[in-house]
Amino acid sequence: MVAKITLGTRGSELARAQTLLVEKAIRSAHPNVTIETKMIVTRGDDAKVVDLYAGRKGVFTAEIERALLAGDVDVAVHSAKDLPSESNPGAKIAAVLPRGSVNDVLISKHSGGLTSLPYGATVATGSVRRQCQLHCKRADLNVVDLRGNVPTRLRKLAENQWDGIVLAQAGLERLGFSATRTEMGFEDGQFFVEILPGEIFLPAGGQGIIALQIRSDDQSTKAFLESVSDRETLLCLYAEREFLSRLHGDCNFPVGVHASIIDGKMKMRAQVFEGKSPAPRQAEVEGVSGEGRHLAAELLRNIERD
Predict the structure, then answer these.
(1) CATH number of the domain within which 298 lies
(2) Interatomic CA distance for residues 234 and 239, integer angstroms
(3) CA-CA distance, 17 to 220, in Å (whole number)?
(4) Sheet order of strands, 91-96 included
(5) Residue 171 lies in domain
(6) Active-site residue numbers?
(7) Residue 292 in contact with residue 236, Cβ under 8 Å?
(8) 14-47: per-residue pLDDT in tens?
């Protein structure tokens, strides 16, 4: 029986909020366990020492993973979409919390959503996937880069001559912002909110999922975390990561992929942007929920034929 467990996480507001959700889930299943949390600074937290344009996968997770492998923490808490699709053989994702929203949200200074933005409007996002999706929907948009944690990004929208920014709904909600209303307040400002259509804005692999990573040989922690893990979310995450691994696509690559399970059936959809074409290659497959690996392979074959 595990008497004490040490969690490792980033120090951002969102990372701390997500780690509190993990602590709550663990305490609900194991009331007597002692939980310690260690904040770890990652390369992505210090933009002065990392070129985020060179590819962002791993810059928010590598240092936490190293602390895990060194034995400084027992569980690494990650936003699943930040993890490289190629796993370190010494570590594995052992558990996940139930998935939050997979939607992307437009936070704007204008009412009416994306279609109502002025011609040539400026929209900021740090995701190449979202950049391609925005241009697919509105080729006239001026899409600019955006970095920083969620409050910083909202502050930049208020301070710059931008018309809107795109954020993940799950992150907003975990920080206490309501993304289901048409308006939201932030500091002294008021913004308009639109949940973007999923048929165009397919999420990043792992979006909305909090992943718990352990050392591959740590069987006691693996067994301990089984009581807090959501089985269907874990199966979906494995399937999405399998697709990305086969495609060799991470968050610096313009690809969206989403798996869902309904009545024991897994449905997977993917969207890949290539070259100068504004329209993505797309495909969808469906099968038994436990066959995510095979579905991911079939999905990639269909994408390549599209």
Answers:
(1) 3.30.160.40
(2) 9
(3) 26
(4) 34-39, 4-9, 75-79, 210-215, 91-96
(5) 104-195
(6) 81-82, 129-130, 147, 153, 251
(7) yes
(8) 999 999 999 999 999 999 999 999 999 876 655 5
- State the pLDDT at residue 50: 41
pLDDT for 275: 80
What are the start-end ranges of the H helices in 30-149? 62-69, 128-137
Which pair of tokens denotes residue 173?
């909600």
191 and 166, same domain (yes or no):
yes
Residue with tokens 């993917």: 270
Q: What's the Cα-to-Cα distance from 124 to each of 95, 134, 160, 259, rounded to whole Å? A: 33, 10, 10, 27
What 8-state DSSP symbol labels residue 30? -
Listed as ranges, residues in the chain with pLDDT below 70 are: 43-59, 249-252
Whether 201 maps to a domain, the answer reads no
Same domain, 92 and 214: yes
Q: Which class for 81: exposed (0-12), middle (13-18), buried (19 or more C-beta within 10 A)? A: buried
